[in-house]
Amino acid sequence: MKFKILPALLCTLCFTMISFLSLAQANFKPQKELLFTIKKNFTDADAQYKVLAKQIGPDEFPKTYHPDVNKQENSNSGWWCSGFYPGSLLYLYQENKDQQLLTEANRIMGVLAKEQFNTHTHDLGFMMYCSFGNANKIGPKPEYRQILVNSAKSLSTRFNPAVGCIKSWDSKPGDYLVIIDNLMNLELLFWATRETGDSSYYKIAVTHANTTMKNHYRPDYSSYHVINYDAQTGAVKEKKTAQGFANESAWARGQSWGLYGYTVLYRETHDKKYLDQAQNIAHFILTNPNLPADKIPYWDYNATNIPNALKDASAAAVMASALLELCRYSDAKKGQEYFNVAQIILKTLSAPRYKAAAGTNGGFILQHSVGHFPAGTEIDVPLSYADYYFIEAMKRYQAFDKKK
């Protein structure tokens, strides 16, 4: 059954949220030196993304760059990362007002638009909300709204009420695979309910989040990567990994996806159980004995060759962005801890070890991310989503500067 959410209620919730954010934000003081570094990062990123734009064909999206063989790797619009390139361009345009970046974002979104009808992926949040969602915030247009609504409809077709989750990967009959990453796509559904008044999107999002909280998480609040459900009964058949070190290990980016996802869940619902979940995940990450002092995680917290294991800048970027939102909703002690860790991550990622020199790295901003270590793909390379969440984290940090 569907119902319309009353505009007055939405206004009240929005006002409450804005007031709460303003109150919480007042306690955090960004460092002037880091603010200066971030300003320079945005200038450098503008130039890098003009380099990156030259590395793709008319219908291609940048995926990664292999420095050892000087080879660019691109994708089509159906790849799950296709929204990050236009999303990063739009974020950078907001900062630098460089019309060339906006023109390129609009061009590539024209290629991406057809994915609004793609019902074979769970990643429409990544693909469409990071792109058209950001575009709609910068300059709302009816066509953006319709693309986003259609995308939410397409994503909703992958929801199975018997399981209580949106299917992540299509597999053999009887299997129903759900990955922790899928939490990141729920923001699109929350937007769709706010925009249309149709509660079905909201209900799907919270049901998926609740099922994931129940089955993906261990007692220590680390997460499995993949849960395989029985498609008919919803019973859990397997708990395993795909991109992590082992079934019982804590794949680093997966932990960051969960941290970010439940932070968004709290923002969108004000349900304290999601705040508690996000804070418990943060506690697992930040107290983990294998989290390095520079706060850039190894690709898996249980990799056997730590401290010689590869680090994952993408996991760090997602973590920093999440913490810079979570700190706003938390008490003074926790909030300051989250803010401080995010600050360390931004400093580390801004240093030459991770931030690429001008004109290098295929045009990507960050170096040293790990995509799928067990499969031997995207190992110690730049990744489009590492850049996107790094940019987002820098924007969120700047927002604490009252002088800006």
User: What is the 3D shape?
Assistant: globular
SS summary, helix count: 13
Question: Do you know the CATH topology of the largest domain?
Answer: Glycosyltransferase
Helix percentage: 40-55%
Give the C-alpha Rg. 20 Å
Q: What order do the helices and strands follow? A: HHEEHHHHEEEHHEEHHHHEEH
**Which strands sit side by side, in order, in the main sheet?**
5-6-7
Strands, total number: 9
Briefly note the structural class of the backbone.
mainly alpha
- Cα distance spanning the termini: 45 Å
Q: Helices, strands, pairings?
A:
Layout: H1 7-25, H2 32-53, E1 61-66, E2 71-75, H3 84-96, H4 99-112, H5 124-138, H6 142-156, E3 159-160, E4 165-166, E5 175-179, H7 186-196, H8 199-215, E6 226-230, E7 236-240, H9 252-269, H10 272-286, H11 313-329, H12 332-350, E8 369-372, E9 377-381, H13 384-398
Antiparallel strand pairs: 1-2, 3-4, 5-6, 6-7, 8-9
Helix pairs in contact: 2-3, 2-12, 3-4, 3-5, 3-13, 5-6, 5-7, 6-7, 7-8, 9-10, 9-11, 11-12, 11-13, 12-13
